[in-house]
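Quick question, first post here. What does this chain look like in 3D?
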Amino acid sequence: MIYCVEDERNIRELLVYTLETTGFSARGISDGKELFGELKKESPELILLDIMLPGEDGYTILEKLKSDFSTRDIPVIMVTAKETEFDKVRGLEGGADDYITKPFGMMEFVARVKAVLRRSQKQNDDKEVKCGELRIHSGKHEVKLNGEKIELTRKEFELLQYLVENKGLVMTRNQILCHVWGYDFDGETRTVDVHVRTLRQKLKSAGNMIETVRGVGYRIEE
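> Answer (accepted):
Ran it through. Tokens below.
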């Protein structure tokens, strides 16, 4: 089930129709209050979340979702007319898995939904990887720094895991985008930069292991 949180009826119905005609189950929701009511009944595979909503806006709803243990792992795609870099960065830093600006093509929309679901449903091997002072447990989606647990979003975790699995190698932004987000659309590499920045901050001293290779991408070195 995919929840489409959108206050404009025409857009909401179009999103639900598009998803259902491509094989998904979808439900239209008009605001945050209705969303949290539905979440008590059923946990969806994905939430499509508009920003400009009556009552609580999308950013506030996203913050609540990511701060609640029962909903924090539900992937979220921001779907909004707000297209400034600030708005996009704010959504991604808040834990959104992707950000789509209106208007958009239905084929790209469906491709992004599939990519997010593919990444969120991928089964990880239950293994622990070491990198410097970091311990990364893929099965538990857990990262520890000197024994202290570091809270990461799903995408931050997958980004770190990908860099560590390719330790010492330079990963281009497009390679990271394809592997972690599951797609490659021109102009979307800013998504990678935003997540690298927040990841470095959360990893504290270990964040210095993530090196920027100017004009190319990133690599992690112990």
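The longest strand covers residues 76-80.
Helices lie at 9-21, 32-39, 58-67, 85-93, 106-121, 154-165, 173-181, 190-202.
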